[in-house]
Amino acid sequence: MLSTVEVVQVFLARLAAQDAPGIARLCAPAVEWEAPDPNGARWSLGPRTRREVESWFLTLFAAFELEQLSARRLVVDGGDAAVIGSARWRVRATGDPVQVRFASVISVHLGEIEQYWHLPDTLAVTRTAA
């Protein structure tokens, strides 16, 4: 069974590789979810299945190509981890670059992600879409 730090490291590696199925496999059968939809229209709240997690990331990767991912700080307390970082994306439809700072809170239990809160700079994404 992977530790919290190891799960977060694998999650970030799979995110950088744009591996939606791999990210979903890291998750518990139900993940408590809080993150904006990839198109920025609304926030998604509440439990998500592995399949819904995979779909969310597939939608994100269809709209944006990840060019660089940087985790500036990782703070771990037992099963809880906070990642503070930034990502440079390219909008697939227009080719426009988007630099987004973010904080993510990931809770791990028995080696699986059971809570994911992703708090990006939605203003940066909104400005690109305008």
Which terms summarize this structure?
single chain, 130 residues, alpha+beta, six-stranded mixed β-sheet, 4 helices, 6 strands, globular
The biggest sheet amounts to: 6 strands, mixed
Q: Major sheet: order of its strands? A: 2-1-6-5-4-3
Structural class estimated from helices and strands: alpha+beta
Q: Tell me, what's the shape?
A: globular
Report the sheet-strand fraction: over 45%
Write a brief caption for the model.
It is built from four helices and six strands, in the order H-H-E-E-H-E-E-E-E-H. The protein has helices at residues 4-16, 20-25, 50-63, 122-129, and strands spanning 27-36, 43-49, 64-77, 80-91, 97-109, 112-120.
Structure description:
This protein has 130 residues and is of the alpha+beta class. Helix content is 32%, strand content 50%. The protein has four helices and six strands, in the order H-H-E-E-H-E-E-E-E-H. Strands 2-1-6-5-4-3 form a six-stranded mixed beta sheet. The termini are far apart.
What's the helix and strand layout?
Elements: H1 4-16, H2 20-25, E1 27-36, E2 43-49, H3 50-63, E3 64-77, E4 80-91, E5 97-109, E6 112-120, H4 122-129
Parallel strand pairs: 1-6
Antiparallel strand pairs: 1-2, 3-4, 4-5, 5-6
